[in-house]
């Protein structure tokens, strides 16, 4: 079928739906919802068999939904209605939830039901749920609805009046935290329900801030509302019965009405921050500790696990340097396998554009950031005394995708979306991508991936050779499955031979073209991108960080529909989803 996706933004779910439908042989077009007339024009131009809205913040015009089947993906169970469905579910501590695909009609979320899929709700941030449990349920529901529509025999069911639960927009009056009376569990729910948007509006150090992210602290205590400590850019704040870590802040307003954006909390506060103890977390922290750290190491037998999780997947200069120090520590341990990656959600999206935008000299900070990330990738590439596995529990893009490819094996969860390109930010790219990407997919495909700048599903990445294993596991099961497979890899009699072969291959390739040459060539291009004031990178970065609305659907998405960019015919022959552990 020819399917038109309309969305308020080409977000993670829209990318996943786009790729998965393309993988299944559909021709998929994408148009951003930028007003009623733009939607009408898009439908006229594409003449789709079916219209799907994976993420839509505005209503579809009556003349469109009355003449075309338009399916809305609603992040709530049947009967749930309103613009803040997932926010309310997290606020109320729901343990199970669901996603419903329904037909658009005049009353919002009241249309005929084409599919509904339940999902669990672990106690994590809303944005994490949206990309994982809710994302899995949404994709399953979309595929089911598309199958039912294509059959031509399915009759969707009307919603019953008694099923309706209409809830209002979740505004700041509901999210507000009274630090003198609100218990820690409720504080965490409010912070998690507002992450990553809109944040919880609060007063702090004489100004108003949106708080982003919330994690419990099991040791530090103080007067309710008091700032207690800092750690890796986050602040710890006392509650009435405990304390929470808040990694990011966003100012409510700026002089001149400029758009504000999230930053590490200590960087956002700047000179306002009082003298507080900085309490670094040891890399090797007991698993039972209930505290926040963005880098953590532990071992299970011959396998070392270096877990990291940075908000939004962005990695600043400081974060790259701390992760590199932890990686060096991991490589000093008597293990034969090191696994990199968090248990769930983002792996990495490369350099930290928000921190760069806030810097006194964004070009200099860009340069420092890319070199710090290059140092980390180089350390992985030159590790020859053990096997390195990257475990992608969540999405990866740009330099983060290339960091993953630096490992000997890449394993990812089936819901992961990869964006192995830099072009949309006006960058040539670094992180040794000119070495790692072609050696996995070939030069021609490397050029196609980086130039077309389209998302790649886990299944497509596996067929291409970008990843070695795709694990069909729920988000909460991924880490345990990775641990099981890593232990199996470490125990294989052939592992030591693989390590010896790996060292020999690296030495031969170094003789042909040293890694330093790849880095120098890439950085010479990046230097021009960073330090030329007229380079597109600066305007593109600013628009991305400050969330400036696009004026039209980007050309690379317009072009994608004609090529069916996610489809089988362009990514090569399929391979089995589960390969035996082998070098």
Please provide a written account of the structure.
This protein is of the alpha/beta class. The chain folds into three domains: 2-165, Formyl transferase, N-terminal domain (Rossmann fold, 3-Layer(aba) Sandwich); 177-272, Formyl transferase, C-terminal domain (Methionyl-tRNA Fmet Formyltransferase, Chain A, domain 2); 295-548, Alpha-Beta Complex (2-enoyl-CoA Hydratase, Chain A, domain 1). 39% of the residues lie in helices and 20% in strands. It contains 22 helices and 27 strands. It has a six-stranded mixed beta sheet, with helices on both faces. Strands 17-18-20-22-24-27 form a six-stranded mixed beta sheet, with helices on both faces. A four-stranded antiparallel beta sheet has the order 9-10-15-16. Helix 3 links the parallel strand 3 (50-53) and strand 4 (70-74). Helix 4 runs antiparallel to helix 8 (184-193), helix 12 packs antiparallel against helix 19 (515-531) and helix 14 packs across helix 15 (443-452). The protein is globular. The two termini are 39 Å apart. The relative contact order is 0.09.
């Amino acid at each position: 079928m020819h399917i038109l996706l309309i969305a308020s933004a080409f977000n993670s779910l829209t990318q996943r739906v786009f790729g998965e439908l393309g993988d299944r042989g559909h021709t998929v077009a994408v148009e951003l919802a930028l007003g009623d007339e733009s939607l009408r024009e898009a439908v006229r131009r594409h003449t789709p068999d079916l219209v799907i809205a994976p993420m839509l913040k505005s209503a579809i015009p009556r003349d469109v939904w009355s003449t075309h089947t338009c399916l809305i993906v609603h992040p709530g169970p049947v009967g749930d209605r309103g613009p803040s469905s997932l926010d309310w579910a997290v606020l109320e501590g729901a343990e199970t939830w669901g996603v419903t695909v329904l037909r658009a009609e005049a009353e919002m979320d009241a249309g005929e039901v084409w599919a509904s899929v339940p999902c669990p709700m672990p106690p994590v941030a809303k944005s994490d749920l949206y990309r994982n449990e809710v994302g899995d349920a949404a994709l399953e529901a979309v595929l089911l609805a598309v199958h039912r529509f294509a059959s031509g025999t399915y009759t969707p069911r009307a919603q019953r009046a008694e099923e309706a639960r209409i809830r209002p927009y979740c505004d700041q009056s509901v999210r507000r935290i009274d630090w003198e009376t609100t218990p820690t569990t409720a504080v965490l729910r409010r912070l998690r329900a507002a992450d990553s948007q809109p944040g919880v509006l609060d007063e702090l150090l004489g100004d108003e801030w949106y708080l982003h992210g919330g994690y419990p602290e099991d040791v530090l205590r103080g007067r309710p509302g008091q700032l207690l400590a800092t750690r890796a850019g986050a602040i710890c704040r006392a509650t009435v019965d405990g304390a929470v870590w808040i990694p990011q802040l966003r100012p409510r307003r700026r002089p001149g009405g400029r758009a504000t954006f999230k930053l590490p909390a200590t960087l956002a506060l700047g000179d306002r921050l009082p003298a507080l103890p900085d309490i670094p977390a040891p890399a090797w922290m007991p698993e039972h500790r209930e505290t926040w750290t963005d880098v953590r190491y532990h071992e299970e037998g011959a396998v070392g696990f270096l877990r990291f999780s940075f908000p939004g997947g962005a990695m600043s200069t400081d974060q790259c340097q701390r992760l590199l120090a932890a990686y060096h520590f991991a490589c000093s341990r008597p293990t034969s396998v090191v696994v990199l990656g968090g248990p769930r959600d983002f792996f990495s999206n490369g350099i930290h554009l928000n921190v760069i935008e806030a810097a006194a000299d964004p070009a200099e900070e860009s340069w420092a950031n890319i070199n710090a990330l290059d140092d980390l990738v180089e350390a992985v590439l030159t590790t020859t005394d053990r096997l390195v596995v990257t475990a992608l529990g969540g999405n990866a893009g740009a330099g983060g995708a290339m960091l993953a490819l630096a490992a000997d094996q890449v394993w990812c969860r089936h819901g992961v979306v990869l964006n192995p390109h830099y072009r949309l930010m006006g960058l040539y790219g670094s992180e040794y991508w000119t070495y790692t990407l072609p050696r996995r997919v070939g030069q021609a495909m490397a050029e196609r991936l980086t130039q077309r700048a389209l998302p790649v599903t886990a299944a497509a990445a596996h067929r291409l050779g970008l990843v070695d294993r795709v694990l069909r596991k729920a988000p909460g099961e991924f880490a345990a499955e990775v641990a099981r497979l890593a232990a199996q890899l470490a125990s294989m009699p052939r592992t030591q031979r693989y390590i010896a072969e790996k060292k020999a291959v690296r030495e031969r390739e170094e003789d042909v073209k040293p890694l330093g040459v790849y880095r120098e060539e890439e950085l010479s291009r990046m230097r021009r991108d960073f330090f030329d004031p007229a380079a597109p990178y600066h305007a593109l970065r600013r628009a991305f960080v400050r969330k400036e609305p696009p004026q039209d659907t980007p050309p690379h998405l317009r072009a994608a529909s004609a090529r069916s960019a996610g489809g089988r015919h362009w990514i090569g022959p399929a391979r089995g989803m589960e390969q035996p552990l082998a070098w």
